[in-house]
Amino acid sequence: MPANIAYDPPFTITPALLRMVGEISEAVGRISVREESATLLRLRRANRIRTIQGSLAIEGNSLSEEQITAILDGKRVLAPSREIQEVRNAVTAYDHLDLWVAYKEIDLLAAHSLMMSGLIDESGRYRSGGVGVMAGDRVMHMAPPAKRIPLLMQDLLLWLENTEQHPLIAGSVFHYEFAFIHPFADGNGRMGRLWQTLILSAWNQVFTRIPVESLVYEHQQEYYQAIQVSTSQGQCSPFIDFMLSMIRDAIAAMDTPQVTPQVTPQVERILAVLAKSTNTGMTREELQGALNLKDRKSFRQGYLRPALQWGVIEMSLPDKPNSRLQKYRLTSKGSAKHNAGE
Protein backbone atom coordinates (compact mmCIF):
# COMPACT_ATOMS: atom_id res chain seq x y z
CA MET A 1 0.00 0.00 0.00
CA PRO A 2 1.47 3.41 -0.97
CA ALA A 3 2.59 5.40 2.06
CA ASN A 4 0.27 8.33 1.31
CA ILE A 5 -2.91 6.26 1.74
CA ALA A 6 -4.28 6.69 5.25
CA TYR A 7 -7.00 4.05 4.98
CA ASP A 8 -7.11 0.62 3.37
CA PRO A 9 -10.62 -0.94 3.34
CA PRO A 10 -10.62 -4.49 4.72
CA PHE A 11 -11.51 -7.26 2.28
CA THR A 12 -10.17 -10.61 1.09
CA ILE A 13 -9.58 -11.50 -2.55
CA THR A 14 -10.61 -15.13 -2.94
CA PRO A 15 -9.98 -17.41 -5.93
CA ALA A 16 -13.72 -17.24 -6.70
CA LEU A 17 -13.58 -13.43 -6.92
CA LEU A 18 -10.53 -13.61 -9.19
CA ARG A 19 -12.32 -16.08 -11.47
CA MET A 20 -15.27 -13.71 -11.78
CA VAL A 21 -12.95 -10.80 -12.57
CA GLY A 22 -11.39 -12.91 -15.34
CA GLU A 23 -14.77 -13.97 -16.75
CA ILE A 24 -16.08 -10.41 -16.74
CA SER A 25 -12.91 -9.02 -18.34
CA GLU A 26 -13.11 -11.51 -21.21
CA ALA A 27 -16.80 -10.80 -21.82
CA VAL A 28 -16.22 -7.03 -21.71
CA GLY A 29 -13.61 -7.40 -24.44
CA ARG A 30 -16.09 -9.16 -26.70
CA ILE A 31 -18.89 -6.69 -26.03
CA SER A 32 -16.64 -3.65 -26.54
CA VAL A 33 -15.96 -4.64 -30.14
CA ARG A 34 -19.61 -5.33 -30.92
CA GLU A 35 -20.84 -2.16 -29.16
CA GLU A 36 -19.00 0.02 -31.66
CA SER A 37 -21.74 -0.72 -34.18
CA ALA A 38 -24.02 2.27 -34.71
CA THR A 39 -26.92 -0.12 -35.24
CA LEU A 40 -26.99 -0.73 -31.49
CA LEU A 41 -27.72 2.88 -30.53
CA ARG A 42 -31.33 2.02 -29.80
CA LEU A 43 -30.31 -0.87 -27.54
CA ARG A 44 -27.86 1.41 -25.71
CA ARG A 45 -30.66 3.88 -25.01
CA ALA A 46 -32.93 1.09 -23.78
CA ASN A 47 -30.20 -0.14 -21.43
CA ARG A 48 -29.63 3.36 -20.05
CA ILE A 49 -33.36 3.59 -19.31
CA ARG A 50 -33.23 0.19 -17.57
CA THR A 51 -30.24 1.42 -15.52
CA ILE A 52 -32.08 4.51 -14.32
CA GLN A 53 -35.34 2.67 -13.66
CA GLY A 54 -33.57 -0.04 -11.66
CA SER A 55 -31.51 2.33 -9.52
CA LEU A 56 -34.47 4.57 -8.69
CA ALA A 57 -36.84 1.66 -8.11
CA ILE A 58 -34.57 0.43 -5.31
CA GLU A 59 -35.26 3.77 -3.62
CA GLY A 60 -39.04 3.44 -4.04
CA ASN A 61 -39.60 5.26 -7.35
CA SER A 62 -42.57 3.60 -9.08
CA LEU A 63 -42.10 4.87 -12.65
CA SER A 64 -41.86 2.17 -15.31
CA GLU A 65 -39.38 1.99 -18.17
CA GLU A 66 -42.17 3.09 -20.51
CA GLN A 67 -42.84 6.18 -18.40
CA ILE A 68 -39.13 7.04 -18.23
CA THR A 69 -38.94 6.69 -22.00
CA ALA A 70 -41.89 9.07 -22.34
CA ILE A 71 -40.14 11.61 -20.07
CA LEU A 72 -36.99 11.38 -22.19
CA ASP A 73 -39.10 11.97 -25.29
CA GLY A 74 -40.58 15.10 -23.75
CA LYS A 75 -44.05 13.60 -23.34
CA ARG A 76 -46.41 14.27 -20.46
CA VAL A 77 -46.50 11.56 -17.81
CA LEU A 78 -49.10 11.27 -15.08
CA ALA A 79 -47.04 10.49 -11.98
CA PRO A 80 -45.99 12.11 -8.68
CA SER A 81 -43.92 15.24 -9.38
CA ARG A 82 -41.12 14.07 -7.07
CA GLU A 83 -40.71 10.82 -8.97
CA ILE A 84 -40.60 12.66 -12.30
CA GLN A 85 -37.95 14.99 -10.83
CA GLU A 86 -35.93 11.98 -9.64
CA VAL A 87 -35.95 10.57 -13.18
CA ARG A 88 -34.93 13.85 -14.77
CA ASN A 89 -32.13 14.29 -12.25
CA ALA A 90 -30.84 10.75 -12.79
CA VAL A 91 -30.89 11.16 -16.57
CA THR A 92 -28.84 14.36 -16.23
CA ALA A 93 -26.40 12.72 -13.81
CA TYR A 94 -25.77 9.67 -16.01
CA ASP A 95 -25.32 11.97 -19.01
CA HIS A 96 -22.46 13.68 -17.15
CA LEU A 97 -20.45 10.52 -16.45
CA ASP A 98 -17.81 11.39 -19.04
CA LEU A 99 -17.09 14.70 -17.29
CA TRP A 100 -16.26 13.36 -13.83
CA VAL A 101 -13.22 11.72 -12.24
CA ALA A 102 -14.18 9.16 -9.61
CA TYR A 103 -11.59 10.10 -6.98
CA LYS A 104 -12.26 13.87 -7.08
CA GLU A 105 -14.43 15.10 -4.23
CA ILE A 106 -15.57 18.15 -6.20
CA ASP A 107 -17.02 15.85 -8.87
CA LEU A 108 -18.73 13.65 -6.29
CA LEU A 109 -20.43 16.66 -4.75
CA ALA A 110 -21.38 18.03 -8.17
CA ALA A 111 -22.93 14.67 -9.06
CA HIS A 112 -24.96 14.64 -5.86
CA SER A 113 -26.10 18.18 -6.58
CA LEU A 114 -27.46 17.04 -9.95
CA MET A 115 -28.93 13.79 -8.64
CA MET A 116 -30.81 15.44 -5.75
CA SER A 117 -31.58 18.88 -7.22
CA GLY A 118 -34.99 20.08 -6.07
CA LEU A 119 -35.40 17.03 -3.81
CA ILE A 120 -33.45 17.95 -0.66
CA ASP A 121 -32.00 21.18 0.75
CA GLU A 122 -28.52 19.66 1.22
CA SER A 123 -27.96 18.62 -2.40
CA GLY A 124 -24.26 18.77 -3.23
CA ARG A 125 -23.23 18.93 0.46
CA TYR A 126 -22.38 16.31 3.06
CA ARG A 127 -25.08 15.77 5.67
CA SER A 128 -25.06 17.90 8.81
CA GLY A 129 -26.91 15.44 11.06
CA GLY A 130 -26.96 11.81 12.07
CA VAL A 131 -28.64 9.15 9.97
CA GLY A 132 -29.54 5.49 10.28
CA VAL A 133 -30.25 2.94 7.55
CA MET A 134 -33.67 1.43 8.21
CA ALA A 135 -35.32 -1.86 7.25
CA GLY A 136 -38.94 -1.19 8.05
CA ASP A 137 -38.96 -0.21 11.74
CA ARG A 138 -35.56 -1.76 12.41
CA VAL A 139 -32.26 0.15 12.30
CA MET A 140 -29.83 -1.86 10.16
CA HIS A 141 -26.89 0.52 10.42
CA MET A 142 -26.07 3.75 12.25
CA ALA A 143 -23.82 5.78 9.98
CA PRO A 144 -20.76 7.60 11.37
CA PRO A 145 -21.35 11.04 12.93
CA ALA A 146 -21.61 13.95 10.50
CA LYS A 147 -18.45 15.62 11.81
CA ARG A 148 -16.36 12.62 10.68
CA ILE A 149 -17.65 12.53 7.10
CA PRO A 150 -15.19 14.94 5.45
CA LEU A 151 -12.18 12.99 6.74
CA LEU A 152 -13.73 9.56 6.02
CA MET A 153 -14.57 10.57 2.44
CA GLN A 154 -11.12 12.11 1.97
CA ASP A 155 -9.52 8.82 3.04
CA LEU A 156 -11.82 6.74 0.81
CA LEU A 157 -11.26 8.92 -2.27
CA LEU A 158 -7.49 8.91 -1.65
CA TRP A 159 -7.58 5.11 -1.49
CA LEU A 160 -9.56 5.01 -4.74
CA GLU A 161 -7.04 7.27 -6.46
CA ASN A 162 -4.04 5.16 -5.43
CA THR A 163 -5.31 1.59 -5.21
CA GLU A 164 -3.82 -1.02 -7.49
CA GLN A 165 -6.90 -3.23 -7.27
CA HIS A 166 -8.72 -4.10 -10.49
CA PRO A 167 -11.55 -1.58 -11.19
CA LEU A 168 -14.10 -4.39 -10.78
CA ILE A 169 -12.85 -4.89 -7.22
CA ALA A 170 -12.20 -1.22 -6.49
CA GLY A 171 -15.67 -0.18 -7.68
CA SER A 172 -17.37 -2.72 -5.44
CA VAL A 173 -15.22 -1.79 -2.44
CA PHE A 174 -15.96 1.90 -2.94
CA HIS A 175 -19.68 1.17 -3.30
CA TYR A 176 -19.78 -0.66 0.03
CA GLU A 177 -17.61 1.84 1.92
CA PHE A 178 -19.69 4.72 0.55
CA ALA A 179 -22.89 3.01 1.73
CA PHE A 180 -21.31 2.45 5.17
CA ILE A 181 -20.29 6.11 5.55
CA HIS A 182 -23.64 7.32 4.18
CA PRO A 183 -22.24 10.81 3.57
CA PHE A 184 -25.41 12.52 2.34
CA ALA A 185 -28.77 13.26 3.93
CA ASP A 186 -30.46 11.38 1.06
CA GLY A 187 -29.53 9.80 -2.26
CA ASN A 188 -26.69 7.62 -0.94
CA GLY A 189 -27.91 4.43 -2.63
CA ARG A 190 -28.31 5.92 -6.09
CA MET A 191 -25.01 7.80 -5.72
CA GLY A 192 -23.15 4.64 -4.70
CA ARG A 193 -24.44 2.84 -7.78
CA LEU A 194 -23.73 5.82 -10.04
CA TRP A 195 -20.17 6.09 -8.75
CA GLN A 196 -19.46 2.40 -9.23
CA THR A 197 -20.64 2.81 -12.82
CA LEU A 198 -18.26 5.78 -13.16
CA ILE A 199 -15.33 3.75 -11.81
CA LEU A 200 -16.08 0.90 -14.21
CA SER A 201 -16.67 3.17 -17.21
CA ALA A 202 -13.24 4.76 -16.68
CA TRP A 203 -11.87 1.25 -17.22
CA ASN A 204 -14.15 0.49 -20.17
CA GLN A 205 -16.83 2.77 -21.64
CA VAL A 206 -19.11 -0.20 -22.26
CA PHE A 207 -20.18 0.02 -18.60
CA THR A 208 -22.11 3.21 -19.32
CA ARG A 209 -24.45 0.96 -21.32
CA ILE A 210 -24.68 -2.16 -19.15
CA PRO A 211 -27.80 -2.04 -16.92
CA VAL A 212 -26.25 -3.54 -13.78
CA GLU A 213 -28.62 -1.47 -11.63
CA SER A 214 -31.60 -3.24 -13.20
CA LEU A 215 -30.30 -6.61 -11.99
CA VAL A 216 -29.53 -5.21 -8.56
CA TYR A 217 -33.14 -4.09 -8.32
CA GLU A 218 -34.34 -7.60 -9.19
CA HIS A 219 -32.12 -8.90 -6.36
CA GLN A 220 -32.79 -6.03 -3.98
CA GLN A 221 -33.04 -8.11 -0.80
CA GLU A 222 -29.76 -9.87 -1.59
CA TYR A 223 -28.19 -6.44 -2.19
CA TYR A 224 -29.12 -5.23 1.29
CA GLN A 225 -28.22 -8.57 2.81
CA ALA A 226 -24.73 -8.43 1.25
CA ILE A 227 -24.23 -4.97 2.79
CA GLN A 228 -25.46 -6.21 6.18
CA VAL A 229 -23.30 -9.35 6.15
CA SER A 230 -20.23 -7.35 5.15
CA THR A 231 -20.86 -4.92 8.00
CA SER A 232 -21.29 -7.72 10.53
CA GLN A 233 -18.06 -9.39 9.31
CA GLY A 234 -16.12 -6.13 9.38
CA GLN A 235 -14.95 -6.57 5.79
CA CYS A 236 -16.70 -6.22 2.42
CA SER A 237 -15.85 -9.45 0.60
CA PRO A 238 -19.51 -10.63 0.66
CA PHE A 239 -20.58 -7.39 -1.01
CA ILE A 240 -17.80 -7.67 -3.62
CA ASP A 241 -18.97 -11.19 -4.41
CA PHE A 242 -22.58 -10.02 -4.80
CA MET A 243 -21.74 -7.06 -7.03
CA LEU A 244 -19.41 -9.07 -9.26
CA SER A 245 -22.12 -11.68 -9.73
CA MET A 246 -24.57 -8.93 -10.76
CA ILE A 247 -22.04 -7.44 -13.19
CA ARG A 248 -21.25 -10.89 -14.61
CA ASP A 249 -24.92 -11.71 -15.13
CA ALA A 250 -25.71 -8.32 -16.67
CA ILE A 251 -22.83 -8.75 -19.13
CA ALA A 252 -23.84 -12.34 -19.89
CA ALA A 253 -27.26 -11.08 -20.97
CA MET A 254 -25.55 -8.81 -23.51
CA ASP A 255 -22.79 -11.24 -24.46
CA THR A 256 -25.09 -13.62 -26.31
CA PRO A 257 -25.22 -14.35 -30.03
CA GLN A 258 -26.89 -11.43 -31.72
CA VAL A 259 -30.27 -12.93 -32.31
CA THR A 260 -32.49 -9.89 -31.98
CA PRO A 261 -35.20 -10.04 -29.31
CA GLN A 262 -38.02 -9.60 -31.82
CA VAL A 263 -37.47 -13.15 -33.11
CA THR A 264 -37.56 -14.86 -29.73
CA PRO A 265 -40.40 -17.39 -29.31
CA GLN A 266 -42.08 -15.10 -26.76
CA VAL A 267 -42.17 -12.13 -29.11
CA GLU A 268 -43.23 -14.35 -32.02
CA ARG A 269 -46.24 -15.41 -29.94
CA ILE A 270 -47.24 -11.86 -29.08
CA LEU A 271 -46.97 -10.86 -32.76
CA ALA A 272 -49.14 -13.79 -33.79
CA VAL A 273 -51.86 -12.86 -31.30
CA LEU A 274 -51.88 -9.20 -32.27
CA ALA A 275 -51.92 -10.07 -35.97
CA LYS A 276 -55.35 -11.63 -35.43
CA SER A 277 -56.73 -8.63 -33.53
CA THR A 278 -58.35 -5.50 -34.88
CA ASN A 279 -56.41 -2.32 -35.58
CA THR A 280 -57.49 -0.96 -32.20
CA GLY A 281 -55.21 -3.47 -30.48
CA MET A 282 -55.54 -5.43 -27.24
CA THR A 283 -55.23 -4.56 -23.57
CA ARG A 284 -52.54 -6.06 -21.39
CA GLU A 285 -55.11 -8.34 -19.76
CA GLU A 286 -56.43 -9.49 -23.14
CA LEU A 287 -52.95 -10.22 -24.43
CA GLN A 288 -51.93 -12.08 -21.31
CA GLY A 289 -55.14 -14.11 -21.44
CA ALA A 290 -54.73 -14.96 -25.12
CA LEU A 291 -51.21 -16.20 -24.38
CA ASN A 292 -52.50 -18.20 -21.40
CA LEU A 293 -49.99 -16.55 -19.05
CA LYS A 294 -50.89 -16.06 -15.40
CA ASP A 295 -47.78 -14.29 -14.10
CA ARG A 296 -47.93 -10.57 -14.90
CA LYS A 297 -44.22 -9.93 -14.20
CA SER A 298 -43.09 -12.74 -16.52
CA PHE A 299 -45.40 -11.49 -19.24
CA ARG A 300 -44.10 -7.94 -18.97
CA GLN A 301 -40.41 -8.90 -18.87
CA GLY A 302 -40.43 -11.73 -21.40
CA TYR A 303 -43.07 -10.59 -23.88
CA LEU A 304 -44.28 -7.01 -23.60
CA ARG A 305 -41.05 -5.18 -22.77
CA PRO A 306 -38.80 -6.63 -25.52
CA ALA A 307 -41.55 -6.24 -28.13
CA LEU A 308 -41.92 -2.56 -27.20
CA GLN A 309 -38.18 -1.93 -27.03
CA TRP A 310 -37.59 -3.32 -30.51
CA GLY A 311 -40.46 -1.43 -32.06
CA VAL A 312 -42.57 -4.37 -33.26
CA ILE A 313 -45.55 -3.29 -31.15
CA GLU A 314 -46.65 0.09 -29.86
CA MET A 315 -48.93 1.60 -27.21
CA SER A 316 -52.18 3.25 -28.22
CA LEU A 317 -51.63 5.84 -25.47
CA PRO A 318 -47.82 6.29 -25.28
CA ASP A 319 -48.10 9.40 -23.08
CA LYS A 320 -50.14 7.44 -20.50
CA PRO A 321 -48.30 4.10 -20.12
CA ASN A 322 -50.33 3.00 -17.08
CA SER A 323 -53.76 4.05 -18.35
CA ARG A 324 -56.52 1.49 -17.83
CA LEU A 325 -57.48 2.20 -21.46
CA GLN A 326 -54.02 1.30 -22.75
CA LYS A 327 -53.87 -1.10 -25.70
CA TYR A 328 -51.06 -2.63 -27.72
CA ARG A 329 -50.96 -3.11 -31.49
CA LEU A 330 -48.56 -4.14 -34.22
CA THR A 331 -46.32 -1.57 -35.85
CA SER A 332 -45.53 -1.77 -39.56
CA LYS A 333 -42.20 -3.33 -38.55
CA GLY A 334 -44.03 -5.91 -36.43
CA SER A 335 -46.42 -6.74 -39.28
CA ALA A 336 -43.51 -7.20 -41.65
CA LYS A 337 -41.72 -9.48 -39.20
CA HIS A 338 -44.83 -11.57 -38.64
CA ASN A 339 -45.64 -11.86 -42.34
CA ALA A 340 -42.05 -12.85 -43.06
CA GLY A 341 -42.42 -15.70 -40.59
CA GLU A 342 -39.77 -14.38 -38.19
From TrEMBL:
Active site: H182
Gene Ontology molecular-function annotations: ATP binding
Domain Fido: 103-245
Residues that bind ATP: 133-141, 186-193, 223-224
Pfam families referenced in this protein's UniProt entry, alphabetically: Fic (PF02661), Fic-like_C (PF21247)
Membrane-spanning segments: none
UniProt site (Important for autoinhibition of adenylyltransferase activity): E59
Assigned keywords, A-Z: ATP-binding, Nucleotide-binding
Stored PROSITE patterns: FIDO (PS51459)
Gene3D superfamilies: Fido-like domain
Signal peptide bounds: none
PANTHER family on file: FIDO DOMAIN-CONTAINING PROTEIN, FIDO DOMAIN-CONTAINING PROTEIN DDB_G0283145
Protein name as annotated: Filamentation induced by cAMP protein Fic
